[in-house]
Amino acid sequence: MSMESVAARGSMSAAEVRKMIRQGRLRVPTTGFAEGFMQANLVILPERHASDFRLFCERNPKSCPLLGVGEPGVPGLPELGSIDIRTDVARYRVYRSGTHVETVENLSDIWRDDLVTFALGCSFSFESAILRAGIDIRHISANRNVPMYATNLPTSPAGPFAGSTVVSMRAFRPADAIQAIILSERYPLAHGAPVHIGDPAEIGIKEINRPDYGDPPVIEPGDILGFWACGVTPQLALQQAKLDLAITHEPGFMLVTDLPADTQSVR
Amino acid sequence: MSMESVAARGSMSAAEVRKMIRQGRLRVPTTGFAEGFMQANLVILPERHASDFRLFCERNPKSCPLLGVGEPGVPGLPELGSIDIRTDVARYRVYRSGTHVETVENLSDIWRDDLVTFALGCSFSFESAILRAGIDIRHISANRNVPMYATNLPTSPAGPFAGSTVVSMRAFRPADAIQAIILSERYPLAHGAPVHIGDPAEIGIKEINRPDYGDPPVIEPGDILGFWACGVTPQLALQQAKLDLAITHEPGFMLVTDLPADTQSVR
Predict the structure, then answer these.
(1) What is the CATH number of the domain that holds B217?
(2) Which keywords belong to this entry (chains A, B) (predicted)?
(3) For the segment A43-96, what is each residue's pLDDT rounded down to a tens digit?
(4) Which of A114, B53, B158, B177 has a beta carbon 3.0–4.6 Å from B172's, enabling a disulfide?
(5) Is A1 inside any structural domain?
(6) Interface pTM (ipTM) of the complex?
(7) Which of residues 42-81 of A touch B (CB under 8 A)?
């Protein structure tokens, strides 16, 4: 895949990307692949925790926008495409009792009849909309991962799932920040509008240059900082719940779905 | 009118408000009257400047959202209601050669066959939407006029009309500022989304506590400052153009139209 141009990556269909992953021929982050298709965060957990986790998502829709939920033991997500969730993501994180014990390239040896799959929206859709509007996203231009921070904003708990909201940060010139707010609000399945703008300290972020996840930020003088609810929030809740088994994607290695990237609702 | 309750003012129709004004029985600012109807800034000027002024409005739609334009010498604006523009605004400012020479209660003695009327959107519609969302607007709670400032943001000139953009400022808690941006963007005829947020100095405002127009601001610690293009912008352009005659409303004494307050387009 290293020979593929950026344009070729973008013009692939979601099904083509999934096929390459399934065949073991694509082992890089999915950013920039299959432009126009919605990518998803992945959470897989045992059925007995599924209704609590679903409730957690519904109570925290900005962090955990629900795109689709599978049936127990069934590795398909028919509403999101012709998907075998055991093979169609390039890298999976396996958690046991809340600890990340291994990263695997498929779930063939791990899959169980009681596992339920959740696909949650990610920020790519609104970032694409911002880029299409001609607005620079500093971490993308700098070829960095988005900076992410733990905050003092609580989630609404459900069963064993709780914890604080994790946010991603994007810095903009003030006029661009206004547009970024307006554009992101149109993508509720991609975390929607920011949860905070301005002073990081107000949401409990002490050192903006030392993110808890991702890369250090790129901030220019006069920038407005925007903080969006982030897909790491459910991952943190999942770890804290210490389930016997839980599976997520490795950050950046998303599930590429057949949903159009500008889908605003799946209900 | 002093005996009328706030609720009674709000529940009046636009036509009822205009009738009371026409009969000389309502001589207070129109804020809070005829809730649900769009109020307008007024500009009246000689026909030979009308096409330049129209172009100025079209080139600066955030400052000068055009609701309606009259025919030369005709005091009606049929698209906006059964209006006689000579009598249906409570107070008019009369400018000669760019100087405010008098404030009058009707235009009977001043009206000419070459005068053209422009009705421009004002901020009441988006402020109503913000209040309906349960968000405090500090200057309204403090019973003050909105603070307004000259900026270094240029307008796009047309003929004799030019000058810098005047903005109104509203301060919010960060989460409320995000909502205020999203809500105001839905009202392009009420100045739309802000033109700036954050540091006032970036748009040339040196002393935030000394507005150029209106009352001093109410700002709480941690507030995000939002700056919206303001209807004083065309008034300033009008003064600088030094026309032989120009007429506007006295600030706060608006034209109350029959348009629903949530009208998003008049084209």
Answers:
(1) 3.30.2040.10
(2) Lyase, Plasmid
(3) 999 999 999 999 999 999 999 999 999 999 999 999 999 999 999 999 999 999
(4) B177
(5) no
(6) 0.83
(7) none
